[in-house]
Write a structure and sequence with these properties.
By secondary structure, chain A is mainly β. Chain A contains no helices and twelve strands. Chain B is mainly beta. The chains are: A mainly beta, B mainly beta. Chains A and B meet through strand 6 of A and strand 5 of B.
Chain lengths: 114, 114
């Protein structure tokens, strides 16, 4: 079945550092790809998404590009802030049939230090 | 504020006790979902309701039952709690079934079974 593999954490960065969180996936067809963020004590919020190959999702300075050739959807941000400290989840939704459900990676804890 | 509301936020149960987790959404969404979140495992789908009047099993349904009470409410019941059900439970909703535009999540119920 479909699966998502995320870079293991935790990740600790200094403020203004560059962030990359790796995400690769296994799926048949053409899944949609998502990044969700979970701030302490809260539920998950959709951060960005891409629904077809070469699409770039972006929001709040975060970006991720849907790379079908490498089956990847890495999350990047040029300059992180303390307020970006959270758990980040990569997820995919299959394109048809029983695969059409939201499958999550294990999550990556990010801590940004001032 | 519009969104998904879960109650209670915290609960401690003894092994063998029963309880119901409540979830309500006020966005007129058709589909609702229950997930559990365990360390290092991301979110796993327990049950879902594609539309009012329907419910189906997800990846990890054993030990749980659900009721889609009306379009707004979707409850999760543990009939005889076990320590393996210690987890954080999230309810989510989406406008359409497996909506690629993303889900809205509640803030979670942290359940401990002793």
């Amino acid at each position: 079945g479909d699966s998502v593999t995320q870079m293991e954490g935790p990740v600790t960065l200094s403020e203004e550092a560059f962030l990359t969180i790796n995400c690769t996936y296994t799926a048949t067809g053409y899944p949609s790809l998502f990044w969700y963020v979970q701030y302490p004590g809260e539920g998950l919020q959709l951060l960005l998404k891409a629904t077809k190959a070469d699409d770039k999702g972006s929001n709040k300075g975060f970006e991720a590009t849907y790379r079908k050739e490498t089956t990847s959807f890495h999350l990047e941000k040029g300059s992180v802030q303390v307020s970006d400290s959270a758990v980040y989840f990569c997820a995919l939704m299959g394109s048809s049939g029983s695969a059409r459900q939201l499958t999550f990676g294990s999550g990556t804890q990010l801590t940004v230090l001032p | 504020n519009a969104g998904v509301t879960q109650t209670p936020k915290f609960q401690v149960l003894k092994t063998g006790q029963s309880m119901t987790l409540q979830c309500a959404q006020d966005m007129n969404h058709n589909s609702m979902y229950w997930y559990r979140q365990d360390p290092g495992m991301g979110l796993r789908l327990i049950y879902y309701s594609a539309s009012e009047g329907t419910t189906d099993k997800g990846e990890v349904p054993n030990g749980y039952n659900v009721s889609r009470l009306n379009k707004r409410e979707f409850s999760l019941r543990l009939e005889s709690a076990a320590p393996s059900q210690t987890s954080v439970y999230f309810c989510a909703s989406s406008e359409e079934f497996w909506d690629s535009y993303g889900y809205t999540f509640g803030s979670g119920t942290r359940l401990t079974v002793v």
